[in-house]
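User: Fold this; tokens only.

Assistant: Input:
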Amino acid sequence: MKKKAIALLLVAILSIMTIMCSGCSKKDDLLLLSDLGGVYAWDFDDLDLSIEVSGSLTEGVAASISTEDDMADTPVDTKGVYSNKLMRWGIRRKPGNQTPDADPGAPELIAKYGGIYIGDTSQKVIYLTFDEGYENGYTPKILDVLRDNNVKAVFFITGPYLKEHQDLVRRMVEEGHTVGNHTIHHPSLPEVSDEQLEEEILGLERAFKEKFGKEMKFLRPPKGEYSERTLAITQKLGYTNLFWSFAYDDWYRDKIRGADYAYQMVMRNLHNGAILLLHAVSKDNADALDMIIKGAREMGYTFGDINDLISN
């Protein structure tokens, strides 16, 4: 009788939810569930991947911060303890392989909550990271190059990526790479509630751990957008927010500029402790990766394991 009562209660709750959202889409219905409908309910078409990095990526202007008006309708934590002012991570590149500049105050803020964007600038050690919002056919080649050159990297995946490409994720795990959390749906984190923020991250981690028996510990905020609130919450969830000290506009499928372009872009911006953000959807990056690794080593750089930056 107890089980029957529980079942009837669940049916009643679902019926109420259906009535309340009768004009909503199926995806809207799923978002009302405690687990956002589950990782495997979503496809790549449900994600906004048109802009992968919203902060500055060029010489000149450093990272940008929104005005208060930009955040007028953004939910904040119920206690109002942390600022939810939208910030966009970016860097100002400098010539001569110098350490780039980040927006004033931004490095101190992310460090306050355990975040990282660069390694030891006194050492010629660099770190490779790849964002995997979706698959464009180049990840197998990237994995081949990393294997052949004995380099480990971090791959940040979304919910649909885990759903559709478990073979590639398994290969990442088995070949000793780190799989990081890029959330289920790739939202701007300051724009979601505390509860949604936690589920975006923990929901993906649960599904990943179920398949591969490993936990996730690095988070790359979608679009590089964050706030003090999101940094604080994700740190409490046990995550290290991993930003970058180099990136360029390499996520556009219609911008194929050639392997030499990608090679030159990366090589002239290498610097001590560099955390390189490359998008795996780029043919240019895939074709240039072997040259980048060999060229960096010729310049005296070594490739480090990102886990060493949090184990010390």
